[in-house]
């Protein structure tokens, strides 16, 4: 995943700050409403990270059916 350097305001269940992510180097950034376990981004730093994505059984109605866990920070700028 490619992580943009700035958090942006977004609206999930309530107003929040979202990461900007791309799933390929040439893709446009899109808002990411979930959390990535083990990943604490620093504002102003871009990242390329490897994540493990697992499906959550019976997620709450207002939560994602996917869980993201940091495997490795490949690059940071």
Can you give a write-up of this model?
- The chain has 77 residues and is mainly β.
- It has one domain.
- It has no helices and 7 strands.
- The two termini are 14 Å apart.
- The model has no long low-confidence stretch (mean pLDDT 94).
Any descriptors?
mainly beta, 0% helix, 7-stranded mixed beta sheet, 7 strands, 77 residues
What is the structural class? Answer: mainly beta
Radius of gyration: 13 Å
Can you summarize the main beta sheet? 7 strands, mixed
Percent of residues in β-strands: over 45%
Uncertain parts: none
Count of helical segments? 0
Describe the structure concisely for a colleague:
With about 80 residues, the protein is mainly β. About 0% of the residues lie in helices and about 50% in strands.
List the helices and strands and how they pair.
Elements (H helix, E strand, L loop, with lengths): L1 E2 L4 E4 L3 E8 L7 E3 L3 E2 L9 E9 L10 E11 L1
Parallel strand pairs: 5-7
Antiparallel strand pairs: 1-3, 1-6, 2-3, 3-4, 6-7
